[in-house]
Design brief:
The complex is a heterodimer of chains A (463) and B (360). With 463 residues, chain A is α/β, with parallel strands linked by helices. Chain A has 2 domains: 160 residues, Periplasmic binding protein-like II (D-Maltodextrin-Binding Protein, domain 2); 210 residues, Periplasmic binding protein-like II (D-Maltodextrin-Binding Protein, domain 2). Chain A is 48% helix and 14% strand. In chain A, strands 1, 2, 3, 6, 11 and 12 form a 6-stranded mixed beta sheet that branches. The two termini of chain A are 47 Å apart. In chain A, 44% of the residues are buried. Chain B has 360 residues and is an all-alpha fold. Chain B folds into 2 domains: 97 residues; 243 residues, Orthogonal Bundle (MetI-like fold). Chain B contains 14 helices and no strands. The longest helix of chain B is centred in the first third of the chain and has 34 residues. The two termini of chain B are 36 Å apart. The chains are: A alpha/beta (463), B mainly alpha (360).
């Protein structure tokens, strides 16, 4: 870029020669590095296969001892450690090495790996919708054919099995098993202050409305809400709409909506959104007002509940949100939650959930063994005990939950009259991770009307 | 190579060298594979062996090229040295471009031919139209501000005693990545809302409220929020244009300015009739470079608003289509459109560049 400047100076031949020499040396250096890296990569791949043959001992797992099962998914940092620790005993017993490769750009990288014909053995999907894409192309192995399926089926309630059944070119297949789940229909509150203020936990929608009015009469904002999340801004709003869909209309309508058969621009969806905006857009109802909802990060939103005195009192979010709470808070003492009651009592106690579904891409004996293991509570026992995971397995024990709140979440899921998966995670990416987030954000921030937003979402649905 | 050796000896030596190189190259791979246990040793060996074996390869190939008859020697040498680079460029740049071009005529999964559908989308979809408008804003106002501010600061600093300090201060943001700058400016534009118990923490809102105004959600204000984002790029890039323009200004012979002053020209006259025309080539280079920058703008928008609130840009929409929505057809079409838009600017930039080189 500076050559305009250099160009003004005459360069003598000797200089030029020296420069050329330098350029050549530099080029050689660069090439060398490139070669070195490719050499490293090449040899790494060899290493994995080279480790395989190990001394076969006299045991039940002789066949698989020393083998490697590769996994990939979104667990990083703390989640990755907890995952590793909870499968450790299995690894020691069987001698199978489960190598989990976590990435924050998982959604992008997994498509490249599968399309490139080089999928990991097992893939951990937080979005069943994404898994559905691969199932549709026939790239996922049908677990009905490779696992002891009766064992699997007896260990989950029907809702989970239904959600794992997906349509492939050869008909419906069991596309995966559920590992870790989390509950979403939870309203968090600052227990100490809440009790001190004399508020009571609402059991019905009417009681919730009364509680909101009491808090406003006391001069505070009832709700703390934030949907900012960088490039994923808006997902928290879609969670609210899904909750309201479950609470204002039938499960059939919810399923149709998720499948794209019920339009966004329909009376049912409009009613659900209205139920949400009655809270979100009402004066004094949300801390900071309507505009601050889109500028407040979802992780920061609940923090104001723990200021002294609290600036807001209620926060609806999945159980993972506790890791965003200020440190040193004790579950069940400093904070607690209640189940978000249904608007229409005849709809029972629906619970919105999310979770990780493990799908199999390569069929080898050791991979089958690991998949069978993931269908048991033992696979998440360590994680449940360490906190932050809820087991969907029937053979898991409520005593594993070391903190009261996790245990209560597990109970909420077990007591649910119906369980539905986070709808936006089931919709095609262009809607569920695109227009649904974006258009709701635009609507909440006031830059689009509801009519425009709904029309735009409907238009973005892939044909 | 010794000029007086017999041809037979020379050929033999070269052949021996060639075999040696092949042995070093192949042997290194074998050795590397047996070094699995120690990653550090492996890395060290890979770097050293990688460097020297490639150097050796080039040396030997060059020696062979030098033995060619004089007529074709220069061509052979060129092939030996530029060939690998051209091959790698072809593999890493040309092939992917061609593949994108092919994919842009295919459906979301790249399996069915859909003709010009993706291009129809790229030029009619409301989100794309919004992105085009915003990119135009970035190109025009972003580039204009960077270059004009760069010139003004360069000229003013040139006359100042504190030139170094001023220039360092303006240049400093260049060291910050776009994402890092986004984080900083998020705090400047922060908005906490209104109502009971609210305390704003944003710098801009602090200034506005101190002057008696009302706190604003800056990034939510339609249309104008684009300018709040452009301000970040101007903050980052003005230093770059200032430094280059400043060096061009310093290269203007003092004699010319002196002569103008003797003829009675004032400072403005000198600026517009001497400084600007003399540094015009540099201005063009800087302008085109910043222009390409603002065409490709991605990081700031992604970090600050994620393309929401009417601030979307082409590169962000491309990323979303490819990686979030899994639609490689539409993504490729957007990429090709972006390429076609950038190429003329790039070509102009390069032509200017070459033109000036021959001028010296």
């Amino acid at each position: 870029m500076d050559s305009g400047y250099w160009g003004r100076h005459s360069i003598d031949i000797k200089n030029e020669k020296e420069k050329n020499m330098k350029k050549i040396v530099l080029a050689v250096l660069m090439l060398g590095v490139v070669f070195a890296f490719t050499a490293c990569n090449g040899s790494k791949e060899k290493a994995q296969t080279a480790e395989a043959p190990a001394a076969a001992a006299e045991d039940a797992y002789a066949e698989v001892r020393g083998t490697v099962v590769t996994m990939s998914g979104p667990f990083t940092d703390n989640d990755a450690i907890k995952f590793d620790e909870s499968v450790k005993s299995f690894e020691q017993e069987t001698g199978i090495d489960i190598q989990y490769e976590g990435s924050k750009e998982f959604e992008a990288s997994i498509t490249i790996r599968v399309e490139g014909g080089n999928p990991p053995d097992i893939v951990d999907f937080p979005q069943p919708g994404l898994l559905g894409n691969f199932v549709k192309k026939g790239q996922v192995i049908d677990l009905n054919k490779v696992l002891d399926i009766n064992k699997v089926k007896s260990n989950y309630i029907q809702s989970w099995l239904d959600m794992a059944t997906m349509e492939s070119p050869d008909g419906d297949i069991m596309a995966g098993v559920w590992g870790r789940v989390n509950g979403k229909s939870l309203v968090w509150y600052n227990k100490k202050e809440f009790d001190a203020a004399g508020y009571t936990v609402p059991e019905t929608w009417e009681e919730l409305v009364t509680l909101q009015n009491t808090i406003m009469a006391d001069g505070d904002s009832p709700w703390a809400i934030g949907i900012e999340s960088g490039a994923a801004t808006g997902w928290a709003a879609t969670d609210w709409i899904e909750e309201m869909m479950l609470r204002t209309t039938s499960l059939e309508n919810y399923d149709k909506w998720v499948a794209g058969e019920l339009k966004f621009d329909s009376p049912e969806v409009r009613t659900a959104i209205k139920a949400m905006t009655d809270i979100w857009f009402a004066d004094g109802m949300v801390y900071g007002g309507r505009k601050s909802i889109t500028t407040t990060s979802f992780g920061d939103a609940p923090k104001v509940m723990f200021e002294k005195p609290p600036k807001a009192w209620l926060h609806k979010q999945g159980n993972f949100i506790t890791s965003f709470f200020p440190e040193n808070l004790v579950a069940g003492v400093d904070y607690d939650f209640f189940y978000l009651p249904s608007v229409d009592p005849s709809l029972g106690r629906p619970v919105l959930v999310a979770g990780d579904i493990y799908a199999m891409f390569n069929d080898r004996p050791e991979v089958r063994m690991v998949m069978q293991y993931f269908a048991t509570g033992a696979s998440v026992e360590g994680w449940v005990k360490a906190g932050g995971a809820i087991s969907p397995h029937k053979d898991s024990d409520l005593n594993w939950y070391t903190n009261v709140v996790d245990r209560k979440v597990a109970e909420v899921i077990q007591n649910a009259t119906s369980v539905r998966f986070d709808g936006s995670d089931l919709m095609p990416g262009a809607v569920g991770a695109g227009s649904f987030w974006k258009e709701m954000t635009a609507y909440v921030s006031g830059s689009k009307s509801l009519d425009e937003a709904l029309a735009a979402i409907d238009a973005s649905w892939p044909n | 190579m010794d000029q007086y050796q017999k041809p037979a000896v020379r050929i033999l030596t070269l052949a021996a060298l060639l075999i040696l190189t092949a042995v070093v190259l192949a042997g290194g791979f074998v050795l590397l594979q047996n070094m699995q246990d120690s990653k550090i040793l492996m890395t060290l060996f890979a770097v050293i062996w990688g460097l020297f074996s490639v150097a050796l390869l080039y040396y030997v190939l060059n020696s062979i090229a030098q033995t060619m008859p004089r007529k074709i020697r220069s061509v052979t040498v060129a092939i030996v040295f530029a060939g690998p680079a051209i091959l790698i460029l072809f593999w890493a740049l040309v092939l992917p471009t061609l593949r994108s071009l092919r994919l842009s005529f295919m459906d979301a999964t790249g399996s069915k031919f859909v003709g010009l559908d993706n291009y129809a989308f790229a030029f009619t979809d409301p989100i794309m139209l919004e992105s085009f408008r915003n990119n135009l804003l970035w190109m025009f106002f972003g580039t204009l501000s960077c270059v004009v501010l760069g010139i003004i600061i360069a000229v003013l600093a040139d006359k100042s005693k504190r030139e170094r300090l001023i220039k360092s201060l303006i240049f400093m943001p260049m060291a910050i990545s776009f994402v890092g700058a986004g984080v900083i400016w998020k705090f400047i534009y922060a908005y906490k809302g209104e109502g009971v118990n609210i305390a704003d923490i944003g710098l801009l809102n602090a200034i506005v409220t101190a002057l008696g105004g009302q706190a604003q959600a800056w990034l939510l204000i339609p249309f104008w929020n684009n300018f709040f984002l452009i301000a970040i790029m101007v903050w980052l890039q003005t230093g770059y244009s200032m430094v280059i323009l400043s060096s061009a200004i310093k290269a203007i012979p003092e004699a010319i300015n002196e002569a103008a002053r003797v003829d009675g020209a004032n400072a403005f006259r000198i600026f517009f009739n001497i400084t600007i025309p003399t540094i015009m080539p540099t201005i063009i280079t800087v302008t085109t470079t910043v222009l390409i920058f603002s065409l490709k703008i991605f990081d700031i928008v992604r970090v600050m608003t994620g393309g929401n609130y009417g601030t979307n840009v082409i590169a962000n929409e491309f990323y979303l289509r490819q990686f979030t929505y899994g639609n490689s057809g539409q993504a490729s079409a957007i990429a090709i459109v972006l390429l076609v838009v950038i190429v003329p600017v790039l070509a102009y930039n390069l032509r200017e560049f070459r033109g000036r080189k021959t001028l010296k």
